[in-house]
Amino acid sequence: MRAISIIYRRELGAYLRSPYGWVIGAIVLLIDGLLFQGLVLSGGEQYSAIILERGFYYQSGIPLFAGVLLSFRLLSEERQTYSMVLLNTSPIRDSEIVLGKFLAALTFLGFLLAISVYMPILIKVNGKITTAQIVVGYFGLLLLGAATLAIGLFASALTRNQLIAAVVAAAMVIVMCFIYVLAAKVDPPLKDFLDQIGLFWSHFHNSFEKGILNLRDVIYYVATAYFFLLLAIKTLEAKRWQ
Predict the structure, then answer these.
(1) Which of 45, 84, 106, 176 is the most exposed place for a label (fewest CB within 10 A)?
(2) How far is CA 97 from the centre of its chain?
(3) What is the DSSP string of 49-69?
(4) Could you report the per-residue pLDDT of 25-66, keeping only the tens digit for each?
(5) DSSP codes of every residue in 221-234
(6) Cα–Cα dist 104/90, whole Å
């Protein structure tokens, strides 16, 4: 745990001290705020629950885009600058490196989500929605972000080139988000399988976005994050002395 804590503080400090994390956060929140103001609040008179649902739909861009941008450099940068050699020769396991970096990125992403909470609060002030709907929606956004960060970390472990890592991470996230389109073209049981592995539509859009807390969807996001973190650890172990 001490090694994870050291990596966590080091990586979180890098986000907070450098302009990289703040620029990403500012851009993502600016775009999300413009979409919220232009497309969510300008839809005429509608039920507050429908407006909130549409708001979470657009807010899902925060964990998806920021998750990729915050994670693709975490391991590839270490290898590109040869600082990974120092980590490999220190008494720190690969699993501790991955977990420390993942938790730091998740903390910063959670901070960005917390900043955006004013958007659903505007709906609550002017309409009738419960606090539980907002909490469930943000819990879903955090889980979606955790899965996206894990995918980005795995892509970052595959190569020392940060651009390639970013492209691979973005491609995997896009495919997993829109795999429901392919699922609609095939027959069961393949259709059911593709529906269940989709990152966004089946597990966020149909539940968290509507304020519905489903244990199946929580398990899916936790399992997805665990799976890709495990892949990242195994990839680091395989490339340890390369």
Answers:
(1) 45
(2) 19
(3) HHHHHHHHHHHTHIIIIIHHH
(4) 899 889 888 888 877 676 566 677 888 888 898 889 899 999
(5) HHHHHHHHHHHHHH
(6) 20
pLDDT digits 0-9 by tens, 205-217: 889 988 889 999 9
- pTM of the shown model: 0.92
Those residues whose C-beta lies under 8 Å from the C-beta of residue 6, and which sit 6 or more positions away, are 92, 100
Give the C-alpha separation, 220 to 222, whole Å. 6
Lookup result for tokens 């899916």: 220
Number of Cβ atoms within 10 Å of the Cβ of 91:
6
Dist. CA 19–CA 23, nearest whole Å? 6
Alpha-carbon dihedral sign for residues 184, 186, 187, 192: negative
Per-residue exposure over 129-150, b if at least 16 CB sit within 10 Å of its own CB, e if not: beeebbebbbebbbbbbbbbbb
- Here the tokens at position 25 are 């956060």
The burial class, CB within 10 Å (0-12 / 13-18 / 19+), for 218 is middle
Mean pLDDT in order along the chain per 10 residues (242 residues)? 87 89 89 81 71 87 92 87 73 88 95 90 81 92 96 93 93 91 82 84 87 92 96 87 59
CA–CA gap between residue 57 and residue 47 (Å, rounded): 16
165 contacts 191 by C-beta, under 8 angstroms: no
Helix residue spans in the chain (DSSP H): 2-17, 19-35, 48-59, 61, 67-71, 76-80, 84-88, 94-115, 118-126, 131-158, 162-177, 179-183, 190-197, 215-238
The rounded distance, in Å, linking the Cα atoms of 170 and 67 is 10
